[in-house]
Each structure stands twice: as structure tokens, then as C-alpha cells.
Design goal:
alpha+beta; twelve-stranded antiparallel beta sheet; two-stranded antiparallel sheet; globular
């Protein structure tokens, strides 16, 4: 079909209007102050119900994850996720600038046949390693332990252990899973061990305790105030034998 001069004029006019409209819209967007652009991406809510909430950096790496037990994430190293072979429950995970898991908060409870258990913890991890500081609470049928714990951790990266954990999580039998767990322990022990608790300060059953341990995790000095309110200082041998005890008497 041959276009008439009138058709060409109408087409040219429509193209010009479209271009000018697009230019005007773009000019309004680019002229908007930065704070107005950011405000357009925010919102206010009276209530928000989610199963999992991911807080991420502009590059997509996690900074914080809050999730229920069904959607709780696994282990992370440099932004890669590996399945955990035994962790259950919900809570919160913290991440460093490299996308490594660097701590978290967990809490849970269970009841069965009239018995109950409960636990809660806030942990901070050593770089490329496991937890090094923790505030913990554990209870089993009214027998409670709560306090501050500090661990020594080796210098090697636990990245390979995360890969083994992922394999254990996908094991097709209990025997295969236990074999991989043994492989994990052997790997850790060949590189300096899995770490040792060096300090506990808190309450164990009825006693208030400050316990200091050697690099192998063996208690060597313990300050105790027992259920009767009596203070005591114990010096311990590596095998746990009390070498000397100082009381208020």
C-alpha cells in the first residue's frame, strides 16, 4: 500500500510525540533527588508475617537470615550454601562481608512422654571457623545450665568440612552418614582438632561457676559458689583430680 503525504505527516507526528513523551518521563526520573528514589522503594507495614526473611547486600550476598525450622538455611562459606548434616530448628544467621556464616541465634524446645528440653544460644564465629564466643542456655527436665562460653579454634578453614556436611546430609543410610561424620572428625583432628572450650562463666545446676581450661579443654581452675552459698577455689590436674582446694574456712 502506498502512503499518501497525509499518511506520512500523521506517522511523523506520532513518532515525534512518542519520543518527546519518553524524553520527558526520563528527564523527570533522572532529575528526582536520590532520597526520593530510595523512598519510593521503602514501605511501612503494621504487621509482616513470613517464613523466611533474607537481608542481602547490593551484590546479593547474605548479611542476615531469619527463618523458621522448615526454611532455615544450611552452612555458608564465601556465598556458597552447604546442607547441614544435623542442625534443626529455626532462628537467625549472621554473615560477614565475604558471605561466610559468622554466627547466629537459635532457640527451641521439645516435649515427649512427660519429659521436656529447651535451649537457646547467641554465637559469634571465628573467621573461617566455628563459634568462638557464645551465650547459651540448656535445660533437661528442670536441670539447667546457662552462661558465657569461650572456645579456642584452629586456624584452618572449615570450608572442606562444610562440603563433607553437605554429603552427610544427602547420605542414603545412617551408616553412610556416620562414616562421613567420622571423616569430618578425622579431617579436623589432623589439622589441630575441632577446638576446645577455654572458659565457662555461669550456672550449672545449683552452682555458680567460673571454669578455666587448658588448650586441650581440660578444666584446671574453678571458682564455685555452691547451692548453700559456700565459696570455693579448686586447682585441678589434667585428669580432673583436685590438687588443692581453698574455702572460706
Amino acid at each position: 500500500m502506498t502512503m499518501t503525504p497525509r499518511d506520512w505527516l500523521l506517522t511523523t507526528w506520532l513518532v515525534a510525540v512518542t519520543v518527546l513523551s519518553g524524553w520527558a518521563a526520563w528527564d523527570r526520573i533522572t532529575a528526582r533527588p536520590a532520597d526520593k528514589i530510595e523512598a519510593a522503594a521503602t514501605g511501612e507495614f503494621e504487621e509482616l508475617t513470613v517464613q523466611r526473611l533474607n537481608v542481602v547486600e547490593p551484590n546479593g550476598l547474605n548479611r542476615l537470615v531469619i527463618a523458621n525450622s522448615a526454611r532455615f538455611p544450611g552452612l555458608f562459606m564465601e556465598g556458597t550454601e552447604y546442607r547441614h548434616h544435623s542442625r534443626k530448628g529455626g532462628g537467625m544467621l549472621f554473615f560477614n562481608d565475604e558471605g561466610d556464616e559468622s554466627g547466629g541465634m537459635t532457640f527451641g524446645s521439645a516435649k515427649q512422654d512427660g519429659a521436656h528440653s529447651a535451649s537457646a544460644g547467641l554465637f559469634f564465629d571465628q573467621y573461617k571457623q566455628d563459634q568462638t564466643v557464645g551465650m547459651v542456655y540448656n535445660e533437661q527436665d528442670g536441670r539447667r545450665v546457662a552462661g558465657l562460653r569461650v572456645w579456642d579454634r584452629p586456624d584452618y578453614s572449615i570450608g572442606p568440612l562444610m562440603e563433607m556436611s553437605d554429603r552427610a546430609a544427602g547420605a542414603e543410610s545412617d551408616a553412610e552418614r556416620e562414616a562421613i561424620r567420622k571423616e569430618m572428625m578425622d579431617y579436623a583432628m589432623a589439622r589441630g582438632g575441632a577446638g576446645a572450650e577455654r572458659l565457662f562463666a555461669g550456672k550449672t545446676l545449683e552452682d555458680a561457676v567460673v571454669r578455666l581450661a587448658d588448650p586441650e579443654g581440660r578444666p584446671r581452675l574453678q571458682l564455685t559458689v555452691d547451692a548453700k552459698g559456700e565459696p570455693r577455689v579448686d586447682f585441678l590436674a589434667a585428669d580432673g583430680t583436685v590438687l588443692r582446694s581453698i574455702t572460706a574456712q
